[in-house]
Amino acid sequence: MATITKPEIAPEILESLKTKVEEEKQVIVHCCYPASIYVGNLIRIWQSTFLIDDSIPHKSHLIHHENISLFPYWTEVPPMKDFWFTLVFSGLPKECTSFDLKEEIPEEGGFFIQNIKRNGTDVYRVKII
After folding, report:
1. Percent of the chain at pLDDT exceeding 90
2. Taking the model in full, what pTM does it have?
3. Per-residue pLDDT tens for 72-128?
4. In b/e form, how buried is each residue of 51-69, taking b as 16+ CB within 10 angstroms?
5. Residue numbers of the domain that contains 37
6. Is 12 domain-assigned?
7. How far is CA 61 from CA 52, 74, 75, 89, 104, in A?
8. Residue 74 resides in a domain
9. Can you tell me the distance from the alpha carbon of 83 to that of 76, in angstroms, rounded to the nearest whole number?
10. Which of 20, 62, 72, 101 is most buried, judging by how many CB atoms fall within 10 Å of its CB?
11. Looking at the 3D structure of the chain, how many domains does it have?
């Protein structure tokens, strides 16, 4: 009967893998588009939306969106009711303490929320104004 031995992994490789796992964490941003009296408001998100930490510099990329259309399509916003949607981004670096949510688009009106303070859960609620 053969003896099975546990493989040994060099400590520097284990440390490298630990860093990779931390980089794979995700950031969830719940966004509120405030109620309006107008009928026919439309909203969408572009793939070129990022979480940006300028102090490092770093950009977390949009990897998923819920309850909002991705460019070039539109989502109709119901009148007189706050509209909520969720964006999921790739992880922020461990040393990041605050970041901006920025939609980098070739037209006016892109979302921009400045100086979001980092928390321990990486789940946030922001109001789109």
Report:
1. 67
2. 0.79
3. 999 999 989 999 999 999 999 999 999 999 999 999 989 999 999 999 999 999 999
4. bbbeeeebbbebeebeebe
5. 25-127
6. no
7. 9, 21, 21, 5, 11
8. yes
9. 10
10. 101
11. 1
